[in-house]
């Protein structure tokens, strides 16, 4: 594990710690770019699998430090990884470490403490399966994480960033106004996407863009579409995404081919052209079971003026309001989702109105300009402190 050049220039050096290079590029590269424009230098320690992705990051002026993150390490392996991160931080000597994901907030927070880096941004981009889990054991684990982040891993130099207002409560944290912030996910630029007229209807064409894992509700989407078609609705579902071999709840390729064998369902694999997807579809389907921060797929659908069908889970319900930008149903309730699908299938004018409302909703704190400005203001305040 090599490190960027030590020391800082300009207003300060920010070291981002992110698990995957593609995630950093899609969700946090605009933040790093804005920080650089404000006078900071930036580097990211991340798993760099794709040379093209790393090239895009470097082209923005961010130094890429390849590291081998272990997504499920625990015990001694986790401590060893934290020790490696600490070694990297001592060499890089960042003024601020920006830790991305709940897991890296824990490991990176420990590493920053070991390395003596006092200014730490804990960016909790969702709680994953632990956030969606029910019961006393899951609640106790969440509270333990919150106690660790607010206590021994945090300190006066730490700031919290969340993507919805439910996750802090789940961790038992109280955000401090003026210090900690809630941002509109990764944010999108409404002006970067031209809203294309929706295709003729019927059929109502739905798209689900996500990793093909259980928490995203892929199976619920397939079941709901089958129920709606069984009631005579003319509706089709397109699935875009790949299995996640690191996630024990991932659907297999065989599972996905089985879904695609059902009437009205198609699996297209990974897409790199979101705009093309939304030109061919009327509405976004995001039946999350929970654990999200704020799904970027919802923001991108809104960016292209498409209606939203999602669930009453943190992040999703923050952005989409039931009956305005789309319909919001209970997680895991395929029948309720099917009813919402049938309502849209019968009312093309409502589909268009909800799509326009979703795009307008972006201006309520969900644009990339608003999100990046919030982060730069946070960095500035930390440096002053």
Q: Count the helices. How many?
A: 15
What is the helix fraction of residues, given as a range?
Answer: 40-55%
What portion of residues belong to β-strands?
A: 15-25%
> In terms of structural class, how would the helical and strand content be classed?
alpha/beta
Q: What kind of oligomer do you see? A: single chain
Shape: globular
Distance between the termini: 31 Å
Total domains: 2
The spatial strand order of the largest sheet comes to: 3-2-1-4-5-6-7
Query: How many beta-strand segments?
Result: 13
**CATH hierarchy, class of the largest domain:** Alpha Beta
CATH architecture of the largest domain: 3-Layer(aba) Sandwich
Summarize the structure.
With about 375 residues, this protein is an alpha/beta fold.
Description:
The chain has about 375 residues and is an alpha/beta fold. It folds into two domains: about 10-185 and about 365-385, Glycogen Phosphorylase B (Rossmann fold, 3-Layer(aba) Sandwich), CATH 3.40.50.2000; about 190-360, Rossmann fold (3-Layer(aba) Sandwich), CATH 3.40.50. The protein is built from 15 helices and 13 strands. The chain has helices at about 20-35, 50-60, 75-90, 100-115, 130, 135-150, 165-170, 220-230, 255-260, 275-280, 295-305, 315-320, 335-345, 350-360, 370-385; strands at about 10-20, 40-45, 65, 95-100, 120-125, 160, 180, 205-210, 235-240, 265-270, 285, 305-310, 325-330. The strands form two sheets. Strands 3-2-1-4-5-6-7 form a seven-stranded parallel beta sheet. A six-stranded parallel beta sheet has the order 10-9-8-11-12-13, with helices on both faces. α1 (about 20-35) packs parallel to α2 (about 50-60), α1 (about 20-35) crosses α15 and α3 packs across α4 (about 100-115). The longest helix is centred in the N-terminal third of the chain and has 18 residues, at about 75-90.
